[in-house]
Each structure stands twice: as structure tokens, then as C-alpha cells.
Design goal:
261 residues, alpha/beta, TIM Barrel, two-stranded parallel sheet, globular
């Protein structure tokens, strides 16, 4: 099976969606800084609920919602939902690719102060844009940035997360992650009932992940499994015992790991 042959639509998200109850972050208002008709991303993970979409950089002729308009939409929802726990930048793209990411985070900070809110600004990211200084500055302004680390061995990184060419290899990914202060990692583990090689629930990967965690020393690690329809048919959740076993190996490194099902 050649996964590059797949272009699956998956979920299509508006610029602002929810609020939804997140298994990790509470009541979350979602912000999608990508296109609203299909997914474009620098990774094309097999498990993504937004489908494979298009694995590429954005073109110069592709227009995304301006930051002033996006903040207006967010402001409307914030004042309608006073019990929010988080505003989460996620959706069907990599948040770091948004051209006005720094201005967006600054605007959210001002909105938080003006509304006297307690919600957090959370970014869910694959980290592909952390070589860009403005993205790094923006991410470090957020309350929490959760970065992806699903695999700890090179061949599985390329096969399962499927980054675009400029992202490079696993070592380059790890070096980017080190640039974030107060590093938090999100790791999703899954099985595949059709092709075992398209699963990351295997001992070489678990050992590789443990070595990566030991090197990166994040302040928190969330372990999850598949909860929505994946891009690739055949991907299924793993049981809680597998996640708990990995969490225990991480805690033996004196690191914090939580299973979030």
C-alpha cells in the first residue's frame, strides 16, 4: 500500500468552531488558521481526522482569513461562552504556517485581559515551522504549546507522520522541539488491523520514544490513542494497558506522563 496515493477529505472545519469538550484540555474553542474547504498541512499523518488532505506548503495565491477578521470571530464566541477553559489553535493545518501568527497570539492575549478571562491560549503543532523566528516568538507567548512526537525511529517517522521534504528527518524534528520553552509533547499511539507496518505500537518505536523523551526532557507528556475516524482505513485505537505501560517507562525517567483517553 502506497500511502502517497491517498487524498482523503476528512473533517472540514470553519475558522472558529466549537466550543467542544476536549479529553485533554476541557471546554475548548477551536481556531482553524488554515483553509476552510480542505486540509493543507506540512505533515500528513495516517491517523488525522482531517484526512490526508494536501501535503505541501501554502501557495502565495491562497488567501486565509486576515487576523483582524479572525479575532473578531473569536471575540464573538468568547463573549457568548464565559466558561471556556482554552482557546485552541488546531484545525486542518499546521498553526505555525499562518502568516500573522504572532499578531494572532498577541490579539488573543489582549482579548484575554480585556474580558478578564481565565482561559488559556493553547497551540497544537507538529513543530515544522519552529526554524522561523516569528513563529518561535509567537509560540513562546502562548500559555501552552503541545508538540507532536509520535515516533522515535526514523523510518517510522517518514512512513507514519509523512512530513514534507523540507521538514527533514527525525533528528531535525527533535532539534526544532528543543527551541520551545516549557516543552510539552503529545504522543498518539495506534494499531493497524490491516498492515502492521502502518502502526506505531511496536517495541522499536516505544524504545525510540523513551530515548527521545530522555533527551528532550519535556515538562509534560500526554499519551492518547485514536478517537475519531482516521485518514487511513484500518487504523484502530490501542488499549489503555499499552498506554499505561509506556507512561510507566516515561515516569521511570523522572518525567511527567499522563494517559488521556
Amino acid at each position: 500500500m502506497n500511502t502517497d496515493d491517498f487524498v482523503v477529505q476528512g473533517e472540514v472545519l470553519p475558522s472558529v468552531y466549537g466550543p467542544l469538550r476536549s479529553r485533554r484540555h476541557g471546554l475548548s474553542l477551536g481556531v482553524n488558521v488554515g483553509l476552510t474547504d480542505h486540509k493543507v498541512c506540512t505533515w500528513s499523518c495516517l491517523y488525522c481526522q482531517c484526512g490526508f488532505g494536501e501535503k505541501r506548503d501554502y501557495r502565495s495565491d491562497e488567501t486565509r482569513l486576515a487576523v483582524v477578521d479572525l479575532l473578531d470571530l473569536i471575540k464573538t464566541e468568547v463573549f457568548k461562552n464565559s466558561d471556556l477553559d482554552v482557546i485552541t489553535l488546531a484545525g486542518n493545518t499546521e498553526p505555525g504556517t499562518y502568516p500573522e501568527i504572532f499578531q494572532l497570539i498577541q490579539g488573543l492575549q489582549r482579548l484575554k485581559i480585556a474580558s478578564r478571562a481565565k482561559w488559556k491560549i493553547v497551540i497544537l503543532s507538529n513543530g515544522s515551522e519552529l526554524d522561523r523566528e516569528e513563529v518561535l516568538r509567537a509560540f513562546n507567548l502562548a500559555d501552552e504549546v503541545w508538540l507532536k512526537l509520535d515516533v522515535g525511529v526514523e523510518d517510522q517517522f517518514q512512513l507514519l507522520n509523512r512530513p514534507i521534504h523540507r521538514v527533514g528527518n527525525l533528528r531535525q524534528h527533535l532539534d526544532r522541539l528543543k527551541k520551545i520553552k516549557n516543552l510539552r509533547l503529545q504522543t498518539l499511539i495506534w494499531s493497524n488491523e490491516k498492515e502492521g507496518r502502518l502502526s506505531n505500537a511496536n517495541e522499536p518505536n516505544f524504545q525510540g520514544l523513551v530515548e527521545c523523551y530522555s533527551e528532550l526532557k519535556p515538562i509534560a507528556i500526554h499519551l492518547t490513542t485514536v478517537a475519531r475516524d482516521p485518514a487511513l482505513p484500518g487504523i484502530v485505537p490501542v488499549n489503555s494497558e499499552i498506554l499505561q505501560s509506556l507512561a510507566e517507562r516515561i515516569r521511570n525517567l523522572n518525567l511527567t506522563a499522563e494517559v488521556k483517553n
